[in-house]
Specification:
Shape: globular
CATH class of the largest domain: Alpha Beta
CATH topology of the largest domain: D-amino Acid Aminotransferase, Chain A, domain 1
Number of strands: 19
Number of helices: 17
Largest sheet: 11 strands, mixed
Number of domains: 4
Helix content: 25-40%
Radius of gyration: 25 Å
Structural class: alpha+beta
């Protein structure tokens, strides 16, 4: 099947009940997994009694007909907040701004954030994300054009494209002037003002890392995986992937994009690809050995830097990206997602996040990928199914029998007070049922006191944990009088002027935007 013309492929369960899995992807790796489980293929595009749907191309009908708590669906519907260039950039900026305000007003350990029962190191964007500007915002666009110097190299990317499509380099003033004129003409075009959706998609410009670390003289990046195996509660995993290299030696002045972009889609355009295909992908073990042999002594690196320092850094960056969008992702029991994360290492061994990709490529066109991709696919589906079934039965999520390749990053059962409410009535009813299961499993919730009883006093010496609610489109019922706590003075003024809080306050009253201090996660429940 071509990538443009996917068909739906159903896998009914061998159980007596009618259950199926509909796939919108090439059935190669995923279908092999289901066949091994005894499921059969069904070619019926209109069936809704499926168990799992692997969705490469998202559609409104897919999510509208989804039955929370009964089915599994690959791809969170609004994962674009994490997997588009503008979405990731904007949310990382917002997260950093809010965290800076919080750290200044709370006595927190410098550089760390207490997150439930965990401690997460807060990274500065400049330490892992290349300097970037949005070209769809006039002020940022003008700031970039004023900043640009003729000796610099910047890379221009469309916000939603993948596989290197629409990417070009800005290497001189003439190229920048041409881009500026084109953007100006688009902004002034009356057609695009009347019909905005016909305008070219928005772009960002990113400072190009001109001195990357090279492997045998070639540029490379590392594809790793962030698996969101469950959203109610959130359960996240990190998975190692592989190293992607260019066919030709690196030259920063080259106009050939195949010398700058490492993905397989671009490398196939190189005339040398058919000869060097097997050398364009390395295992992480080979990469680790190469770094040990070539750079360990010269750069003073610890042994197995790739599997220690580098891996930990990738996990920290992934967690920060997730926390930046955690309150914005749509959460329903049955949603799961696999996100491809691309990292680059410069000559000083500084780790940079290039982008995060929805629906990462699962092709196996070389020997290394034929070994790695099946492991990733099998691990993804094993974990998603096991956690889903445990959630339905009210069982503890950990330990996991199918956790082999992936490393646990975050278990929401131990740090959250229960699932977030959904937007629909049916979802609300399921969320209430799941909350009772989660509360009995995670031991984080408590029953509200009766109206006649006084609320328990906070134990002395307890450090308050503060909870802020600012979910757009999610409606919270008025807080019962018995649950009312004293508003936190250190926190309230931080969010009182936030556009989301102001809009909710105008439309739904002040209780929706109040920030309350409680003494523990149990009290937060």
């Amino acid at each position: 099947l071509t990538r443009e013309g996917r068909k739906r492929i159903c896998f009914p369960s061998p159980s007596p009940q009618a259950v199926a899995a509909l796939l919108f992807c090439s059935p190669c790796r995923v279908s092999v997994y289901f066949r091994s489980k005894g499921w059969q293929r069904v070619h019926d595009n209109k069936r809704e009694d499926y168990k799992l749907k692997w969705c490469e191309t998202k559609s409104r009908e897919t999510y509208y007909n989804f039955k929370e708590g009964e089915q599994l669906l690959y791809q969170i519907p609004n994962n674009k907040v994490l997997t588009t260039k503008i979405g990731l950039l904007s949310n990382l900026r917002e997260y950093e701004r809010v965290m800076n305000k919080i750290s200044k007003n709370l006595n927190t350990k410098k550089g760390f954030l207490a997150y439930g029962q965990f401690s997460h190191r807060i990274l500065k964007m400049e330490d892992f994300f290349p300097e970037s500007f949005r070209l769809d915002i006039k002020d940022e666009r003008e700031a970039f054009f004023e900043l640009y110097k003729d000796t610099q190299i910047w890379i221009c990317k469309p916000t939603c494209s993948n596989q290197g499509r629409g990417i070009f380099l800005l290497k001189n003033q003439a190229g920048v002037d041409s881009l500026q004129a084109k953007l100006q003409s688009i902004e002034e075009d009356p057609l695009y003002r009347k019909v905005p959706y016909k305008a070219p998609q928005a772009r960002i410009v990113q400072r190009y890392i001109q001195k990357p670390l090279l492997l045998e003289g070639k540029k490379f990046d590392v594809r790793s995986y962030l698996l969101i195996a469950c959203t109610v509660p959130y359960v996240l995993f990190f998975g190692h992937g592989y190293v992607r290299l260019t066919c030709t030696h690196y030259d920063a002045t080259s106009d050939d994009l195949t010398a700058h972009l490492t993905n397989q889609y671009m490398q196939k355009k190189n005339p040398l690809y058919s000869q060097l295909k097997e050398e364009t992908v390395w295992r992480m073990e080979r990469f680790n050995s190469y770094v040990n042999d070539k750079f360990r002594q010269a750069k003073g690196l610890p042994k197995d830097w790739v599997f220690t320092v580098f891996t930990k850094r990738m996990q920290q960056i992934m967690m920060q990206c997730f926390l930046a969008v955690k309150s914005k992702l749509e959460c329903k029991l049955g949603y799961f997602d696999l996100i491809g994360c691309d990292f680059l290492i410069d000559e000083n061994f500084k780790v940079w996040l290039l982008e995060m990709n929805a629906n990462p490529a699962l092709h196996t066109n070389c020997a290394v990928l034929q070994d790695i991709i099946p492991t990733v696919v099998n691990g993804t589906l094993d974990l998603a199914l096991e956690i889903f079934n445990k959630s339905l039965k009210g069982q503890r999520i950990l330990p996991l029998q199918t956790q082999c390749h992936f490393v646990l990053l975050h278990n929401g059962c131990t740090s959250e007070a229960g699932p977030r409410p959904s937007k629909t009535r049916s979802a609300l009813s399921i969320a209430r049922n799941q909350r009772s299961l989660t509360e009995s499993t995670c031991h984080l919730a408590r029953q509200p006191p009766k109206a006649a009883e006084k609320p328990p006093k906070k134990p002395s010496g307890t450090v308050p944990i503060f909870w802020a609610f600012s979910y757009i489109g999610t409606y919270y019922p008025p807080l019962p009088q018995t649950h009312t706590q004293t508003p936190c003075p250190n926190f309230s003024h931080l969010l009182s002027g936030h556009p989301t809080c102001m809009a909710l306050r105008r439309s739904h009253g002040p209780q929706l935007c109040a920030v309350w201090g409680v003494s523990s996660p149990r009290a937060a429940g």
